[in-house]
Amino acid sequence: MPTNLSPLVQSFVLHFGEMGSRWGINRTVGQVYALLYISPQPLCADDIVEALGISRSNVSMSLKELQAWNLAILKHFPGDRRDFFTTPDDVWQILRTLAEERKKREIDPTLSVLREILMETPENEDERHAQKRIDEMKTLIEQLTGWYDDVKRLETERLASLLALGSKVTKLLEAKDRIVSLARPRGAKKDG
Q1: DSSP secondary structure string, 7-59?
Q2: Nearest to 142 by CA among 84, 171, 85, 103
Q3: For position 151, what pLDDT does the model report?
Q4: Any bridge partners for residue 74, and if so which?
Q5: 0.85 cut: is pTM over it?
Q6: Distance between CA atoms of residues 69 and 150, nearest Å
């Protein structure tokens, strides 16, 4: 890593590169994203090459991948033919974009495969057992994606409030359960 980045920026960029490799993206893609995110102005490929000390082709491939994820925004300036890049300003929009892209790339294909497997006729007891387990997994993933679809429609302020509630949500649900149990006639069974 070149020393022309301040220690603070260098730490952030290096960390994002490390995290990127853990999240399943190339280390360089993570570093390019971090540099774009933290930069006060859009950067062209040459700026990124100079700042990170990586090859032009590596920068180009990283920018294409970030654009495919909708995480790099192309900008043009009058009188300059170069392409400049930045990231969305709103961190909530970045979070939404990441979640949606990961869902499209990882969750949706998994659900498709699970549904296809469940349409097959089991040939023996082991396959029936396997399909039962697969159906449980599919049902859970569908519930989670339904919850995700509900949450992604929330306005940013509401989503931030929901996250700020944290464990208070559990306490709210426990209070609801106590109220419902008090209102239930003695001897009535609790619905599952």
Answers
A1: HHHHHHHHHHHHHHHHTTS-HHHHHHHHHHHH-SS-EEHHHHHHHHT--HHHH
A2: 103
A3: 87
A4: 85
A5: no
A6: 22
